[in-house]
Amino acid sequence: MALGYVRPARPEDAGEIARIQLATWRVAYRRMLPRHVLDNLDEAWLARRWSAAIEAPPSAGHRVLVAVEQAEQSYLVGFAASGPADEEALAPGEPAEALGTGVAAVTDLLVEPRWGRRGHGSRLLAASVDLWREDGFTTAVAWAFEGDAAMRKFLGSTGWEPDGAARALDVDDMLVAQLRLHVSLAPATD
């Protein structure tokens, strides 16, 4: 059993978050995205973007959380980023009011593959849900690559379901299909 916890990201975490993102994408998405696109991603550029997201989020509802594995030493092993749903959460051609109010959107949820299957993704998701409920969100949405069976299975195991929306990202002239999943944030009743 892994010892781990989730905490808010700190400015000094930005570089490690970028490294985790790049390492995870290069393993998990190597068959979904063109290799040269993955090979040419700039870790320093990603780190600057994560630094901005951590230090100057667009609202109090925008958060970056990190998962930490504790052993003889502590390691950042994953992260989650989310905020109020905006135009990025919409499907192509979907009107701005389609999702309604009270919707949180996951923009990233990644655990570095070598640290997978230790509960870090579940801890990140549970911490996010707790914060979304505190913020008054009633629903959450996330886009997942259609070919990312692991993410779809993970989210599905916690009650997330496709909501019928789909889109295709144009990645260097290659269309990569995504499905939008959603989940109610109403607390479970016994």
UniProtKB/TrEMBL annotation:
Its EC number is 2.3.-.-. InterPro entries: Acyl_CoA_acyltransferase, Bact_Acetyltransf, GNAT_dom. Residues 4-182 form the N-acetyltransferase domain. The keyword Oxidoreductase does not apply. It comes from the Bacteria. GO terms for molecular function: acyltransferase activity. Keywords: Acyltransferase, Transferase. PANTHER family: AMINOALKYLPHOSPHONATE N-ACETYLTRANSFERASE-RELATED-RELATED. This is GNAT family N-acetyltransferase. It comes from Micromonospora sonneratiae.
